[in-house]
């Protein structure tokens, strides 16, 4: 019988990972108690194919409109549209999976959208330079701290509402807190004064969430860290 070294439970059958914490099990496996049943996922796969077909169709249409049908001089928008559509398709694919982790999905979605926003602003500034578009830094000053703050609030609420998904994924809340705290510290050093108000608000929200998490879910947080870092 296999054993989870972190949950301290014995698990029958021949599973490779603990069903509670998803860490690797130790010990010798046994024959499965019940026959394996293949779960039909045709509807989910079909829905995913429809989404991806729509994404690639929109990308092709935008490329055609941008480079084939418009002959006048104009700023090319199709790379931006393609990037946003691909990220949107990735997020939808993440959600359509049979098993998904809410906090993980939200964290990586926030990171992907933040990177795409920065890339979009840089692309507009560099590729459309002849239109004299200034670099305003809207993404780093407003969009990213707002995304981080909203994601932190959503994660904090979900950690209390849906414990089935969040008990073993609180590490992503701490990563989100780092996303909010580290940039504020870097901006404090470079600005040599107070960073933008949006980042200060983000810092306060992350600190409050961190304190609340330790007060209300401290044992689960410590257990999560021990399992993640094999302490």
> Radius of gyration, rounded?
23 Å
By secondary-structure content and strand pairing, the structural class works out as: mainly alpha
Portion of residues in beta strands equals: under 5%
Instruction: Give the proportion of residues in helices.
Output: 55-70%
| Structure annotation, total helices | 7
Unreliable runs: none
- Measure the end-to-end span: 23 Å
Count of distinct strands:
2
What strand order characterises the main sheet?
1-2
The helix/strand series, from N terminus to C terminus, equals EEHHHHHHH
Largest sheet: 2 strands, antiparallel
Which whole number gives the mean pLDDT?
Answer: 79
Q: Categorize the overall geometry.
A: flat
Description:
By secondary structure, the chain is mainly α. 67% of the residues lie in helices and 3% in strands. It has seven helices and two strands. It has helices spanning 42-69, 78-96, 102-127, 138-161, 163-166, 171-191, 197-228, and strands at 2-4, 9-11. The chain has a two-stranded antiparallel sheet. Helix 1 runs antiparallel to helix 2 (78-96) and helix 2 (78-96) packs antiparallel against helix 3. The longest helix is centred in the last third of the chain and has 32 residues, at 197-228. It is flat, with a radius of gyration of 23 Å. The two termini are 23 Å apart. The model has no long low-confidence stretch (mean pLDDT 79).
